Amino acid sequence: MRGPIAVTGAAGFVGSRLIRLLRAEGLPVRGVVRSTRDVAPLRDLGCEIAVADVRERRSLEPAFAGCSAVVHLVAIVRERAGQTFDIINRVGAAHAATVARDAGVARFVHLSALGAALDAPRYLRSKWAGEEEVRRSGVPCVIFRPSILLAAGGGAAAQLADVVRFGSWYPLVLLLGGRGLFAWLGSLVPIVPVLGSGQYRSMPIALDDVLPALRQALDRDDLLGQTFEIGGPEVVTYDALVQRVARVLGLRRAALHLPGSLARAVVATLALLPNPPITPDEAAALFVDNVCDPGPAVRAFGLRVRPLDQALREALLGPGEKS
User: Fold this and answer.
1) What 3-state class would DSSP assign to 83?
2) What would the mean pLDDT of 282-300 be, rounded to a whole number?
3) Alpha carbons 58 and 97: distance in angstroms, whole number
4) Strand pairing partners for 48?
5) The pLDDT value given to residue 320
6) Which of the 8 DSSP states describes residue 168?
7) CATH superfamily of 5-146
8) Whole-angstrom Cα distance, residue 256 to residue 125?
9) How much is the pTM?
10) CA distances, 211 to each of 18, 242, 257 (Å)
């Protein structure tokens, strides 16, 4: 690779870990961020910093100039003012892909999501539209669709832990804080509200088991033009996942299932909060089975995928810890 690897969303949950992997190999990396507020850890890794916004095509031009490859990680799962699914997940991907193409990069690696499809709920449909923009751009690309990614320090694992730990009190934790108080109340009322049947399925996977695939995609020509779905070694229902998380945390929790009409009403009401625990779009995506055949990706990249319980322990308690 003659030029640096540009990573959009460099300070994020996936980006920061990918950059650590790339820098450990001594590869030059240019972290593309919207703000320099949280880039000290990236600078400590010897990462060059570029400021750009995927909503502004021209801002990406200097960020990608001279780069050998681009890894595009920027996406949102929750809309906010000025940041809609269409603008960030579709248009942002289109801007990144076309600027990368015009910059002459040898490889564009795009992170999508398992379940992305034209007929999917809004979030997943926007991820499918982003994929289509990347393919249409003509940039040499590899696309990944991972299931739920597990790692310490945030993401889905941290959210699941809070859902299990606080149960019915979780919305108040987000609104008021007071984690100690509400954890105590959660132990007094050990119930986790579950939307609908709780039988919708996913295949959670350790983020560290996915990163090697992203790394290989940067310089393997045989992968060009392909889309890879990546899931963990087990298909697990949401009910079962809640119990697995509770077991890792050393907690006992019972599920309280909210039937369809009540679940929709609860989600709509919670959406009025400044920081709701779940939005209607997130609920719609949650109900879609997030499963795939992981065999092709495992074979193509020679992945060694750790068992789900191990991935959960490491994400919730740290490496080497036992529940």
Assistant:
1) strand
2) 95
3) 12
4) 30
5) 57
6) G
7) NAD(P)-binding Rossmann-like Domain (3.40.50.720)
8) 30
9) 0.94
10) 6, 25, 35
- Upper half-sphere CA count for residue 241 (Cβ side, 13 Å): 27
163-198: pLDDT as tens digits: 999 999 999 999 999 999 999 999 999 999 999 999
Question: Beta strand 29-33 with 5-8: parallel, antiparallel or unpaired?
Answer: parallel
Which tokens in the block code for residue 70?
């681009």
Write the CA distances from 138 to 18, 23, 79, 103, 294, integer angstroms. 25, 28, 28, 12, 27
Element at 116 (helix H, strand E): none
DSSP-derived pairing of the beta strands 236-237 and 201-202: antiparallel
Instruction: Name the phi and psi angles at 305, rounded to 5.
Output: -95, 125
Helix (H) or strand (E) holding 232: none
| CA 163 – CA 114 distance, rounded (Å) | 22
Q: What are the pLDDT digits (tens) for 34-66? A: 998 889 999 999 999 999 999 999 999 999 999
| Contact residues for 226 (Cβ-Cβ < 8 A; gap 6+) | 142, 143, 300
Query: In sequence order, what are the residues at sequence separation of 6 or more whose Cβ sits closer than 8 angstroms to the Cβ of residue 276?
Result: 171, 174, 270
Q: Which of 138, 130, 98 is nearest to 111 (CA)?
A: 130
DSSP string, 233-280: S--EEHHHHHHHHHHHHT---EEEEEPHHHHHHHHHHHTTSSS-S--H
Side chain identity at residue 298, one-letter code: V
* Identity at 204, one-letter amino acid code: P
DSSP 3-state helix, strand, coil percentages of the chain (rounded to 5)?
A: 45, 15, 35
Cα–Cα distance for residue pair 264/83, rounded to 1 Å: 24
